[in-house]
Amino acid sequence: MEYFGLPAFDQTGLVKTVYTTSKNAIWKYGEKGSLENFTELGQELGLNPERMVKTIQKHTSKVRIVSKENSGEGVVRPICGIVDGEEAAEGYDGLITNEKKLLLCTVEADCVPVYLLDTEKKVIGMIHSGWKGTVKKISAVAINKMIEAFGCKVENILVGIGPHICKDCYEVGKDVYDEFQSGNFNLQQIFFKKNDEKYLLNLEEAVKLTVMECGIPEKNISSSGYCTYHSQERFCSYRRTKSASDRMLTAIMLV
């Protein structure tokens, strides 16, 4: 299994971070090859798939706090329970835990994977942030949940940004521009106008602005530096291939 990690996180000795490549691209529960991929990754990490939990991504701003009772959900068994007053199976795009040896998993193929770690309280988060989740400031939702549920402090939270489509490759229409305008983003910092109808969107910068608004120091933010669209030999990109199933897994675990 080929995968990489975020040095700023792994070097703390508190966590193991993962982002896989296009060599293993099937991670959807129940899909052929998915369990085999989770099992192979588990062998690399010394972890049983029963100790992994995955999101059901619907481009929401919902973030779920999970524990050992949720082990295996979305990996070896269906997702159940309630998130923000609704059935978990309806979808959520983020996970938080303070449980050791529980791998939090999301999947992406251009969207931004956001890793969170409070180095003092030993709390982690794994967030899927596409443009819709970014507009809804899902990263801020996750950080606020860490603060409210676990007493985390922003100065102790590290934010990691995994591989995603970069600002030079992500062309969007005015409808997306208008959504960010409604979300009170600094448009000059995240958009480059190509013409009256087309813009280039810097999702990474939008995520950074969001977490810094929460009080996260800029020095606490790191990025893989990889663009999924540019790195055609390494990562899955929906914009490049239009594949409805190929995804890379992004994950974090307290060790």
- The SS-based structural class is alpha+beta
Mean pLDDT equals 96
The number of distinct helices, counting runs of at least 4 residues, comes to 8
Sheet with the most strands: spatial strand order: 4-7-10-9-11-15
Main sheet summary: 6 strands, mixed
Report how far the terminal alpha carbons are from each other: 20 Å
Number of strands: 16
Low-confidence parts? none
Q: Please tell me how large the radius of gyration is.
A: 17 Å
Percent helix: 10-25%
What's the helix-strand series?
A: EHEHEEEEEEEEHHEEHHEEHEHE
Strand content: 25-35%
Quaternary: single chain
So what's the overall shape?
Answer: globular
Structure characterization notes:
This protein has helices spanning 7-10, 34-45, 131-135, 138-150, 174-182, 187-190, 203-213, 238-241, and strands at residues 3-4, 15-20, 52-54, 63-65, 82-83, 86-87, 94-97, 103-108, 112-118, 123-129, 157-161, 171-173, 191-193, 198-201, 221-223, 248-254. The protein is an alpha+beta fold and 255 residues long.
Which short descriptors sum up this protein?
255 residues, alpha+beta, six-stranded mixed sheet, five-stranded mixed sheet, 8 helices, 26% strand
Give a brief rundown of this model:
The chain has 255 residues and is an alpha+beta fold.
Outline the secondary-structure elements.
Layout: E1 3-4, H1 7-10, E2 15-20, H2 34-45, E3 52-54, E4 63-65, E5 82-83, E6 86-87, E7 94-97, E8 103-108, E9 112-118, E10 123-129, H3 131-135, H4 138-150, E11 157-161, E12 171-173, H5 174-182, H6 187-190, E13 191-193, E14 198-201, H7 203-213, E15 221-223, H8 238-241, E16 248-254
Parallel strand pairs: 3-8, 4-7, 11-15
Antiparallel strand pairs: 1-2, 2-16, 5-6, 7-10, 8-16, 9-10, 9-11, 12-14, 13-14
